[in-house]
Every structure is written in structure tokens, then in C-alpha cells.
């Protein structure tokens, strides 16, 4: 088999880094487009300097690639409207030039409550937030790319990410505080309201397995069930269990504090916009994925939580 090359945008982030490591383990060459500090890259990656908004830089980095993993997002949720679509357009231009399959880690932002509680790939995408509308447009552009015949597309949608190497997520920003052993664990949702989580190595494993297949449609979209927290307490209780101290309290996230912070800071404002996802159960239907792969990769919850807390220096 000839050596395969993947270009990853966002390889210093959580899902980009996890996918890079998994593909490297599977024998891929991985080229990583980096704008700043490359020290967080897996040393086996080939770093290339460039900005994801620079179409020429992305096109140059994509030469020879058979897959472009578009895992880049504005840091800290900042300036979604100004950055997300221009970055995607750079990837689409590179894919048109190379024919490489675009791989997108999808989000649940695309859906409003009318699609809940069990959401399949063909569910209507009627978002209720600005970020959701941007994500819908993002996928629309990718579907148009695949329909044009210029390059295929793979979208793998999952719930809230958590796992080693990821700090820009609800687990690290809402449930615990990185850098110290938690004295309290925060619960953003109400008890009884299920929530979808996705462990980064499981998502990366799924992407890698799908890329191995030669029978994917030109526009392929799959949902991961992930770590489904059926009653909204399983994740926080797993954290307490890993800490080994049942006296660590679980308390409701103080949304009122986040609302006040949102008046002056962008990240809390963006987090507040997504609160509806903690007020309604949303579970992703993985039937199509299971039919394709036979089973969904899934790490036991306690094992996944232990690795995540260790990476955040909480244990």
C-alpha cells in the first residue's frame, strides 16, 4: 500500500491532535498546518507554517494529501462569524485542487429542539443560535463540494468533546478547573436531562476506521452515540469516582455568574448561547455508523474520565 498523507488543520487542538496521533499510529504521514507554537504537535507530524484563513497556504500544504482534516476553530469561541467560514473556504479550495477528501468533526449546534431527543443524520437542521447557523452553512458548502464531484466529504458528528489534550470544552471549562484537584464538581444540566459526550480518542478512532473504507459515498455523514449520559449525572459522578473521594460535592453550575460574565467577556457569552443543549436531552443516533463499521469505538467512561483528569492535571 502506498504511503497515505493527511493534512490536518487544528492539529494542536483536541480533536485535531487526537486524529493526528491515531492516523500516525495507522501508518499515515501527517502534515500539520500551524500558525503559532508547534511544540504541542506530535513529533511525528510534519509542521508547515501557515494560517487556515490563507487559501494559498492551505493549498500548498495540501499537495499530495488524500485527506484534509478540518479540525480548526477560533480559540476561545472568539469571532466565529468572522473566521469559521473563511477557514472552511480555504479547505474547500485546497480540496478542489487536490481531490482530497475533506473530513469534518461535526457538532450538535446544527440542531434545534424540534430535532430532539434522538437525532439521525437526516434530521432537519434548524438551529436556534448564531454558531448553529454557521455550522449549517459550513456543512451546506461541503455538501455542494461533494455534489460537484471535485472532492468527497466525510462528516463525523459527536457530542461535547472531552479527553487528553483538550481544554476548550465544557468538561474543562464547566465541570472542573484545570491545574488542581477539584474541590467541587459542577453540573451544568438538571438531573434527568440526558447529555451527549464524546471521548476524543474514540472520535479519532472512528474517523480513522472510516477513512480505511473505499465504499463511502461522496458525501458521507455519520453520528456517534459517544458517552451518553442518560440522566445528566453519570459524567459528574464518574469524576467523583475517579477522584476517589465521595465527599467531593457535586453542585449546579452557577449560570447566573456566567450570565454576568457574558456582559463583558466573549467566551462566557458564547457558552451562554449554547445553554439550551443542557436544558433538553439530545442523543445522536449511531445506527448508520454501526451498520458501516459493525460497532462504535467506545472507551469505558471511568477510564476516559481518568485519562482526561490526568491530562488536565486534576489528579
From TrEMBL:
InterPro entries: Epimerase_deHydtase, NAD(P)-bd_dom_sf, NAD(P)-dependent_oxidoreduct. SUPFAM superfamilies: NAD(P)-binding Rossmann-fold domains (SSF51735). Residues 6-213 form the NAD-dependent epimerase/dehydratase domain. This is NAD(P)H-binding protein. It comes from Sphingomonas citri. The lineage of its organism: Bacteria, Pseudomonadati, Pseudomonadota, Alphaproteobacteria, Sphingomonadales.
Amino acid at each position: 500500500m502506498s504511503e497515505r498523507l493527511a493534512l490536518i488543520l487544528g492539529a494542536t487542538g483536541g480533536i485535531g491532535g487526537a486524529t493526528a496521533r491515531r492516523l500516525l499510529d495507522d501508518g499515515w504521514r501527517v502534515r500539520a498546518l500551524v500558525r503559532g507554537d508547534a511544540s504541542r504537535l506530535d513529533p511525528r507530524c510534519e509542521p508547515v507554517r501557515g494560517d487556515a484563513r490563507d487559501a494559498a497556504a492551505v493549498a500548498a500544504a495540501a499537495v499530495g494529501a488524500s485527506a484534509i482534516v478540518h479540525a480548526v476553530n477560533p480559540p476561545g469561541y472568539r469571532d466565529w462569524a468572522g473566521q469559521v467560514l473563511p477557514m472552511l473556504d480555504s479547505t474547500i479550495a485546497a480540496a478542489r485542487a487536490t481531490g482530497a477528501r475533506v473530513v469534518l468533526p461535526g457538532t450538535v449546534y446544527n440542531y434545534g429542539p424540534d430535532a430532539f431527543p434522538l437525532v439521525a443524520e437526516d434530521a432537519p437542521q434548524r438551529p436556534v443560535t448564531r454558531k448553529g447557523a454557521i455550522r449549517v452553512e459550513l456543512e451546506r458548502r461541503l455538501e455542494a463540494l461533494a455534489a460537484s464531484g471535485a472532492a468527497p466529504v466525510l462528516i463525523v458528528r459527536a457530542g461535547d468533546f472531552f479527553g487528553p489534550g483538550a481544554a476548550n470544552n465544557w468538561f474543562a471549562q464547566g465541570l472542573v478547573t484545570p491545574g488542581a484537584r477539584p474541590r467541587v464538581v459542577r453540573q451544568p444540566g438538571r438531573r434527568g436531562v440526558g447529555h451527549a459526550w464524546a471521548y476524543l480518542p474514540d472520535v479519532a478512532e472512528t474517523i480513522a476506521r472510516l477513512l480505511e473504507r473505499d465504499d463511502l459515498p461522496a458525501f458521507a455523514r455519520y453520528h456517534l452515540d459517544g458517552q451518553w449520559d442518560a440522566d445528566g449525572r453519570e459524567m459528574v459522578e464518574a469524576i467523583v469516582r475517579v477522584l476517589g473521594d465521595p465527599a467531593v460535592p457535586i453542585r449546579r453550575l452557577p449560570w447566573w455568574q456566567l450570565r454576568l460574565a457574558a456582559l463583558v467577556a466573549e467566551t462566557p457569552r458564547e457558552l451562554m448561547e449554547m445553554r439550551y443543549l443542557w436544558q433538553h436531552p439530545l442523543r445522536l443516533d449511531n445506527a448508520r455508523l454501526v451498520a458501516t463499521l459493525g460497532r462504535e469505538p467506545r472507551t469505558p467512561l471511568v477510564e476516559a474520565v481518568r485519562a482526561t483528569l490526568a491530562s488536565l492535571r486534576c489528579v
